[in-house]
Amino acid sequence: MIKVTNKKAIRNLAYKSFKNNKIRNYIAIIAIALTAILFTTLFTLGMGTVESIQQASMRQAGGDGHAVVKYITDNEFNTIKEHPLIKEIAYDRMLCDDVENQEFLKRRAEFWYYDDIGLKLGFIEPTSGHKPVAENEAIADTKTLQLMGVPLEVGAPLTLTLNIRGETVIRDFVLAGWWESDPVFNVGQIFASRAYVDAHQKELQNTYKEDYSMTGTIQAYMMFDNSLDLENKLAKVITESGYSFDENAPNYLASNVNWSYLSTNFKMDAQTWIALIAALLLIILTGYLIIYNIFQISVIRDIRFYGLLKTIGTTKKQIQVIIRNQALLLSIIGIPIGLIGGFFIGEALVPLVMRNTTYAGSTVSVSPNPWIFVGAALFALITVIISTLKPGKIAGSVSPVEAVNYTDRDKKNSGTNKKSKDGAKIHRMALANLGRNKKRTILVVFSLSLSLVLMNTVFTLSTSIDMDKFLSKFNDADFLIAHADYFQYDYFGSENQTTETFIEAVQTQPGFQQGGRLYGGRDEIFTCTDNSDDRINTNEYGDHYAAVYGLEEFPLSRLVVLDGELDYDKLASGNYILEGVRLDDNNNPETESSHYDIGEVVELHNYKGTSESFADREYTTQQFTVLAHVAVKYYSNSDLTGWEYSFYLPTDIYKTLVTRPAVMSYTYNVADSDEATMDHFLANYTNMVEPMMNYTSKLTTLVSLSEMKMTVIMVGGALSLIIGLIGVLNFINAVVTSIITRRKEFAMLQSIGMTQKQLRNMLCYEGLYLALGTGIVALFLGGLFSLVIVNIFSGLIWFLSYQFIIWPLLSVLPFLFIMGVLIPWTADVTTNNQSIVERLREAE
Amino acid sequence: MTILQTRNLQKEYGDGDNLVKALDDVNLSIKQGEFVSIVGTSGSGKSTLLHMLGGLDRPSSGKVFVEGNDIFSFKEEPLTIFRRRKIGFVFQSYNLVPVLNVYENVVLPIELDGNTIDVNYINEIIDMLGLASKGANLPSQLSGGQQQRVAIARALAAKPAIVLADEPTGNLDSRTSQDVLSLLKMTGERFKQTIVMITHNEEIAQMADRIIRIEDGKIRERGEND
Using alpha carbons only, what angle is made at residue A402 by residues A400 and A403, rounded to the nearest 5 degrees? Predict the structure, then answer.
């Protein structure tokens, strides 16, 4: 093959014909930008959500170090920090075993020294004041300071009661700075200065290996180059520094990797993958529909030009290169616009998505991760290249002779006659015009329908969110109050029980009708004897750990009996018990969680007593007969722990079994008219009077429900809006180019007497028919999609009850029709600036 | 009776050094029923003259009278309507509407005017032009000569006073050209229509009653041709 340096000529041709296609270029740039927006939004949304969850879990884990070596001494720290794998290492030193201020009974606080890297990895940055420098300076989070009653001002005095190796030491500090408490981090943090550490070297001598005292131990959080293969890296650091992983070895160092790192912990499930791939395919399809259409139209418009190029010896390949170069040039402009736009849209949507995860309330962070842009740009580029393949082929394989007579229509139907004697009505001409290029008409109709179908699906999903199912799962009575720990899945017993003051306060509120306490708690653990072979969660006697709750009359009366009978007299006798059976997401009993038949005798045991160690307590035994099976309503009558064995007793009987009965929660009903007032009162009370208490209500559930609906609509709506925009753009492009390519035909029509008005009427009819076609296709596909796919999907998600709706689609149709008329009209007005004669002459 | 008349017709393009006089003080009058051919080389201004006569283009100065009406005193919309009632066009490149069949193309001007179709008349034209069997065909299924005959039928459909033909045989071979021209002339006589035809082909021009020569925008010569 002869090598010719023709690149420059081809580039020049590509550029010249590019410049000649201004309208096409604008539309193509917008289309490419919108496609890139869709990809970037999707990626930002995905990455942002993952990142926010990751950060939230890092803060729960206490920092974003990749791994930590724990309880080490200064010498050990100095040895390890030299290891080449370590990029950064934090020096975090515990300054006491416990902070024993009375204020921290309910919310523990820790007293540390963190070096600068430690503060950075722990996300701690005083928002006011400065880092501690002097020996008596300290910084803390706002909630801790609030509990201590320390005003938020630099120099405010604070006193800490420290437990140092069992001895109580009281020290005074002054406040140097503070930061806003992180809602996901439920431990108070107080930090002293390096000067403090230096001044108390002796007291901070690490004795962990002798007495397990935490005082003075160092936690070395470390960062590696990246988060891949953390466990191996940590193992290398420890062994190559001369220490051991073996717990029994004398040179053993306790350590672990940070579980919040995705590569070692977070795995995307199949569902997420399918959703992601489906979304990617949808975007590629949307982008393809328009970009293909734009290039196809422009190639056919310029077909004579390509024919000419061929007659003068341009090869097929070179013409394809010309088209591809144009596409790339357009991408260079369009994609960056889309990347920026998409990032901001995605960033705005992440908080909405986060709100519906368990990480609600934590700070949302979306950083412009380069991978978002690389990925989105790549996908957008792939879409552009795929879309221009076929038009390139058409342009490349046109025969030079044919090109002159190439008319823009399907080749196939020239064989059919048109048997009509009705004459030429304008609206029928319009319809016939649409049939000229059926493929393109179908493409435009389909591209517009896509967004309508998507939008209808979004609304169908949000309407199908079933309020009743939601309420019945999360709320039994109108209100449930308990310690904040209870709602954090951390209820223990008498230490964090619901206060009587709180209960009294709600009982005296207007509209209070009926309420009752639920007793329970892990600090006086129950077991039961079961003959099953299962030995999981058993104690030294082979008995199974079990949850036993004592219910006052109100919650007792609200129990849902699955089988057997709820005879209150029999229950009160103390010989009978109710066994709890878990429900699945669809409120069907999980029969395997029932272990006893009705009438069977259960042997219950309890470690009775108040001693810290269960071994010092009395192991009691009582026998009960199972009276009925009742439903365990996870959010209403359980301690939010998934117990294998659950039992319910009347309070009076329950109290005889335990030493320190603890109020787990209190549920009550309120007159309908006073629900809002009560909700307001609770919000206020739990904020101001007893901040450690919290509540749920039907109202709060409803709020979270409407937030969820909102998210579905916002995220789905944003996507359908962009896809809709692409559809409209496609429509505009099709109409404008069809007007431009038929300029001569229109001139002829006008020369034989078609008035401007009649011409525009015809164009508007064309638009109207397109809109009509779109409406019909969208209704059909939307209905079908809803009835088949959404219906099945709704069946899989417990809180969805499928409801068929088509009104969102119907309500958009009028706009579609208006657009169908308006776009051809304006397109003709703006492009029709040549006289009839000029247009007639054009082709001669 | 004079049906078509121009008075001091001027058409200029550009200005200053680039000023081109496409038509320079053209005065001519055509009687009813006359078959006139306008001949000239390319660039002589013959197409411009035809466009002026048909009201497709406006002159720089001067007037065109059709049946005594000063057509450029009309606004755009009434002019279009006047044109479709009084003037039929036949173009070199046929200019048929590709999505309409032969019959629909022929009756299009009548329909655009919202009139009822004189079916007998239309059938007569179609028969005369030998298109009777092609009524349901689309233009793309016809030969060039057939397409031009459809264009002639269309030009006659609205019973116009004048038929303006712009190089009607320009795309046809000489045999077909003769056929088409004979048909044009015959229908013109049959329906008593005035025909003005542009051509650069002397042989074709000879078929007309009168030949008008145009050169550099000026009428050079008048000749009666019997």
Answer: 65
